[in-house]
Amino acid sequence: MTEDRNAHMQKGKGIWIITHASLVPSARQAFSGQSDAEISSGGRADFEALALRFADDLGDIKPEAFFCSDMRSTITCADILRRAFRPAGGTMPVIADPGFRGQNFGAWEGLTEEEVEKRYPGALAERTADICGYAPIGGESPDMLKNRALMALVRARLHTPEGLIVIVGHADFNRCILADYLALPLEAASSIPQPCLSQCYLENR
After folding, report:
1. What number of other Cβ atoms are within 10 A of residue 31's Cβ?
2. Are 7 and 1 spatial neighbours (Cβ–Cβ below 8 Å)?
3. Contact 77, 22 (CB under 8 A)
4. Sheet harboring 94-96: ordered strands across?
5. Exposed, middle or buried, 91 (CB in 10 Å: 0-12/13-18/19+)?
6. Alpha helices (runs of H) in the chain, residue ranges in sequence order
């Protein structure tokens, strides 16, 4: 982190976006945008190490608030981050908002592609033909997710209008924010790397 970036964060309203830790692995390759999974023990250890480095890198700069979805994975990680700022961490709120969740796959949630095709023949082909606009039954499309993500970001800034805020997010949620920030079409969002523990700093525009 450069001194210039440190100075900007100290006087500005920047946003750090961090992807949650790795989850308990599942043998099923299923749609799981809003499955409430726990982080793994290895993921916790990795995120605790990241949190300590993060707090050390920021030095005297303290986040005003941490935002996350209402899923266990992001709540746990946001709390780990907050506690890394001892003793000030106890005064930093963690705001869990369902608007920060990953994509809602509706009736597809928990199903593999094979199971989706069996229950809803032709649905996967329809999705491929309109990857950003297609919404599963009871779920949302990537376009809808992007709109929700941007509204969640607005709420975060309205809640904490000054200073640095940190968002612990899900990969697909984060990609929507980053695609908008970089002025990329949503179709390009999937090409933005967002592995677990990814970090990205956004200056205010």
Report:
1. 22
2. no
3. no
4. 94-96, 65-68, 165-169, 15-19, 199-202
5. exposed
6. 3-11, 41-58, 72-83, 113-119, 123-129, 142-159, 171-181
Kindly give, in sequence order, each residue whose CB lies less than 8 Å from that of residue 107, ignoring residues fewer than 6 positions away: 119, 120, 136, 137, 138, 139
Q: Is the pLDDT score of 11 beyond 50?
A: no
The phi and psi torsions of 66 (rounded to 5 degrees) equal: -115, 135
> Closest Cα to residue 58, out of 153, 163, 130?
163
* Torsion sign over Cα 186, 188, 192, 196: positive
Question: What is the mean predicted confidence (pLDDT) over 36-40?
Answer: 91
Q: What is the pLDDT of residues 159-175, one digit of tens each?
A: 999 899 999 999 999 99
Instruction: State in Å, rounded, how far the first CA of the chain is from the last one.
Output: 20
Return d(Cα 48, Cα 51) in angstroms, integer.
5
Among 11-15, 33-37, 112-116, name the one with the lowest average pLDDT: 11-15
